[in-house]
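tool_log.txt
---
The assistant was asked to compare two proteins side by side. It first ran the structure predictor on the initial sequence, then on the second. Raw inputs and outputs are pasted verbatim so the downstream comparison step can read them without reformatting.
(1)
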Amino acid sequence: IEAAYRLYSLAWNEIYMPLHQGTHPRQGAVDVCPLVPLQDMDLSEAKEWASLLAARIEKELGTPGYFYEANATAPERSNLAVLRKGEYEALPDKFHLLPPDFGDPNQWKRNGVTVLGARKLLIAYNVNLDTQDVSTAKAIAARVRESGQLKTGADGKKIREHGALKAVKGIGWYIEDFKKVQVSYNLTDLSVNGMLEVFLRTRQEAEKAGCTVSGSELIGLAPLSEFEKVQHYLQSIHQADSLMDAIQFLGLHELSPFDPEKKIIDLLMQ
């Protein structure tokens, strides 16, 4: 918690939101701070620590913030996308409809707002495409993510067509640093759909769209079980199935070297 607070304090001093621009949705210098129990702690205890961190932020920094996931103060506030809608540019107008849960709502201009809460392990996972057409990535994201997309029905009314994979969020974008179009995903419940399912479905949708998947990128960490799932899949199609084979199958080396000792939670914690 001390480390998380120091992160907030440093970001508040170094990041000036009125000048901030980027590809990823954001509304604050520390846009979101999840507390994820990994070992010797359950979600309820992590929730208590999140509340303590918010109290310190409120007292010492004053920055406004929302609670989400396990700490959400209302069901509709559990979803990060709902809380972040409109991003920094929607502040402070959205405070009338969505007042912050903690902090001073008047202290938004320099650092924006933050979102804080305890949650289960989430994986941020991007799948790389061999096209430069961002609209293709956006269309694939809409067909894969659970929320799908809005379409116009025969009667002229908007209807939601859900995507293929539950517990998956996704958007399409272009990353200038890599000169790469990606479908960027958040996998919110690994017991429902994980990296393998998302990779295979994205590959399938890419083929329909006339392009191919060239690799993928893991942002942060993932549990060993996600790679074991890929190994089992490789066994089922009679291919080499070591851990390194699983990493190679997902193309995790494409954008930068992938070190399993630093990217797989179980190995990192040994």
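(2)
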Amino acid sequence: MSGESGDISDQSLRMSATARGLAASAEIRAAAEQQILKLQTELDIVHRQKNEIETKYREETRILEAQIKDEQEK
């Protein structure tokens, strides 16, 4: 009987270790997903800022080119 008790105890320990491993894995996955969402949000912000800067400097370039053209025509 003590052999059976030991087998049950070992199996119980393995099952609880597996359950802990699955729980830890789920926590790691959730943390990774949260980090991915945060990085995607930051990337969207950076893309938006980049586009705003490009638009601003394209407009400034257009204005300066028009001024140069006006000066050359004088």
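---
observation on (2): The chain has a mean pLDDT of 88. The helical segments are 2-73.
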